[in-house]
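Structure first, sequence second, as always.
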């Protein structure tokens, strides 16, 4: 199945170039941090999205100074000299761990989310709205996943981590608010709006269901009460003891028998003179009590 929502979102994000150079460095660092392989012996970013590979290539040309090499080589590096060149361009020294986020690479306040944007471009997936809410970053190993997890927490969002059979780990979100926030921060505005629209629609529909369930419950209660009253009145009439009732109860009995579908308010208004709804209710209860002796 083609994951078109994720791909469209990535294409949208790639179209907006980060304004500051420091943020573009952070974005490239994010793309490499989220890559299938990122260490000093090899760098490999696998993507089916041409916009993502083009975005990565442009950043590597600009930041890493890569020129005169094939596009293929730009995202599948094995030459130690070129890898060294790339690490130096990012500001990573020999002691830096490739599976731990080096925050010294991130300079301004926007860099922090530019990094997440880069990670999403290389290993993120987003479930289309309408299904369950799910945004996931598939990290190449546990150490990288834990580092990214803590990093996201420091940005004020609350991810979770999946266990997998292989060494990869998914850092993911299932709450719609968290996902919408992240999409907004990384520049995926269209996807954020689509998710919000679906959420609003779902909330409205749930509310509508709650209201109609509540109405149905009330109707059910009214029907049950009316059925009990009608059956009591039937018992009284068949017993031939309705003449024993006081005049006002007799009037209510006749009206209820004649108008079995009328509401209490309607019955109240039919009395001469009209009585209150609670008055009708009280009389009906007395009729039910009387019927138990018939
Ligand atoms: Zn920046």
């Amino acid at each position: 199945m083609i994951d078109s929502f994720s791909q469209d979102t990535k294409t949208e994000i790639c179209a907006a170039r980060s304004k500051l150079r420091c943020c573009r460095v952070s974005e490239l660092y994010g793309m490499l941090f989220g890559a299938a392989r990122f260490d000093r012996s090899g760098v490999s970013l696998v993507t089916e999205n041409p916009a993502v590979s083009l975005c990565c290539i442009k950043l590597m040309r600009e930041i890493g100074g890569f020129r005169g090499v094939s596009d293929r080589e730009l995202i599948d590096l094995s030459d130690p000299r070129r890898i060294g060149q790339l690490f130096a361009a990012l500001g990573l020294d020999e002691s830096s761990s490739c599976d731990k986020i080096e925050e010294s690479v991130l300079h301004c306040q926007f860099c922090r989310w530019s990094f997440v944007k880069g990670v999403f471009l290389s290993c993120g997936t987003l479930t289309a709205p309408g299904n369950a809410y799910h945004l996931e970053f598939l990290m190449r190993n546990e150490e990288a996943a834990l580092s990214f997890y803590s990093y996201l927490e420091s940005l004020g969002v609350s991810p979770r981590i999946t266990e997998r059979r292989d060494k990869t780990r998914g850092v993911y979100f299932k709450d719609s608010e968290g996902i919408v926030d992240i999409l907004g921060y990384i520049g995926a505005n269209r996807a954020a709006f689509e998710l919000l629209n679906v959420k609003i629609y779902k909330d409205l529909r749930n509310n509508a269901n709650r209201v109609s369930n509540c109405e149905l419950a009330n109707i059910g209660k009214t029907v049950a009460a009316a059925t009990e009253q009608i059956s009591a009145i039937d018992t009284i009439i068949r017993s031939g003891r309705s003449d024993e009732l006081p005049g006002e109860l007799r009037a209510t009995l006749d009206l209820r028998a004649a108008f079995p579908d009328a509401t209490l308010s309607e019955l109240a208004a039919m009395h001469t003179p009209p009585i209150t709804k609670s008055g009708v209710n009280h009389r009906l209860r007395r009729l039910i009590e009387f019927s138990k002796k018939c």
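Margin note: The pocket of zinc ion is lined by residues 20, 22-23, 26, 107-108, 110-111 (CB under 6 Å).
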